[in-house]
Structures are given as C-alpha cells and as structure tokens.
Design goal:
mainly alpha
Length: 232
C-alpha cells in the first residue's frame, strides 16, 4: 500500500508542477504555434529528457547538496537565465511571413516544420534564415537545456524526495516513480501540443506568428532576468 500511496502523491504533485506556467510551457507553446505539432512534440520530449537528469541526481542524493549550495545554485541560475534570454532574443527578432509563405503554411495546416521561408527567424532558429525548420536534434536540445538549466528543479526534487516520499524507499521504487514523472511530463506537454495544433486554432495563429514569437520571446527574457536578478 505504501507504493501506491507514494504513487498517488507523485501523480498529484507532479501534475500540478508540470501544469504550472514556466519556461518549459512558454517554449513548447511557441514551438508548436510557430512550427507545428511535430516540432512541439520533439521539444516536449527534450524537456522530458531534461527531467531525467534531475531525477537521476535526486535519486543519487545530490539534489540536497545542490539545493543547499549557494555557489552551485548561483551558477545554475546564471546558466539558466542566460539561456532563456538567448531564446527570447531569437524570438523577438521574428519577422512576418511573406504572403506566399503564409499561404503555404495554411495549406500545410498542422505541421509547418518543413515550410521554407526567407524572412522568418523563429525562436532559437539557426542564424541562417533561409529555412523555417530545425533538425530533430536541435529541437530536442532546445527543450532539454530549457529544462536542465531550471534552478528551481533541485529545490523541487528535494521537496519530492524528502517530504513527499520516505528516504527509506528502495531504489527500484524510486526508479518507477522517476519514470512515471517523465511519463506525466510528456503526457502533459503532448496534450498542450495537440490542443495548440488543432487546425482551426493553428491557422488562426499563423497570421500573427511573428507577434507570438515576439511576445513569447519577451516573456522568455523576463523569465531569464528574473532568474538572474532575484535573490535566492
């Protein structure tokens, strides 16, 4: 019964944590609205893989060390904040599509990841603006680093593994909980992606895509500055 008690606690707590607005949510939303379902799902997978890093070091007992080390937290805050500012800067440079490119995007409907554009520079795209698509690895890496560089994660996992769960839980049980948290994370962001990529919704946002990039890019910069400037 202890296993299922912990399982229910993990499910409820982590679903609430995953659903709370933050850099991951902003990034997945932007990627989906700008480039379509495929890109949003790959970005979500990258975020989920980033979560695995936090789970592994937490199971090894390092989360407490990180959470109580001011130099380590400061370093993570600067890395995370700088990365978010970089993402945001790429976003606010987005330009409107040409009419022909916009028509092509609307014809594609759900997935615009393969649409060519000579004008748009989407969030964290490569510096060459000739293509509106990134490689699978680049998209995966984007989501991965966005999650890994979140300085709130060590503190969150300290709470999970010391308050919600018993420190005497065997490794196999912790492993199951960790995998389940990754499943929940992927399921939540996949749901967000599927909703935002509904054709009627996606087409509605296509004409304002560059403004969405700019607004969400600004939000990324604000989040990054908040991480860097706020006190512990």
């Amino acid at each position: 019964m202890e296993f299922w008690h912990g399982f229910l606690l993990i499910t409820s707590v982590h679903l609430l944590a995953a659903a709370s607005p933050g850099p991951d949510f902003v990034l997945v939303s932007q990627q989906t609205l700008a480039k379509g379902r495929r890109t949003g799902l790959i970005c979500s997978l990258g975020i989920t893989l980033g979560l695995a890093v936090h789970i592994i070091y937490s199971v090894l007992g390092l989360a407490t060390v990180i959470a109580h080390s001011q130099p380590l937290l400061t370093a993570i805050k600067w890395l995370g904040g700088s990365y978010l500012i970089y993402l945001g800067w790429q976003g606010i440079q987005a330009k409107p599509k040409k009419p022909l490119d916009l028509a092509a995007s609307e014809n594609v409907g759900i997935d615009t990841s393969n649409t060519k554009s000579t004008e748009q520079t989407p969030l964290l795209s490569t510096k060459k603006p000739s293509m509106n698509s990134d490689s699978t690895f680049a998209i995966l890496r984007r989501g991965f680093f966005c999650n890994v560089f979140n300085p709130k994660a060590p503190v969150y996992f300290v709470a999970i593994f010391t308050l919600v769960l018993s420190p005497n839980i065997p490794l196999w049980q912790l492993s199951i909980y960790g995998v389940w948290m990754m499943v929940l994370q992927m399921a939540w962001f996949s749901t967000v992606v599927m909703l935002l990529s509904i054709p009627a919704i996606h087409r509605r946002f296509q004409r304002f895509e560059h403004w969405i990039d700019r607004v969400l890019g600004t939000a990324m910069i604000v989040l990054g500055l908040n991480l860097i400037l706020r006190s512990r």
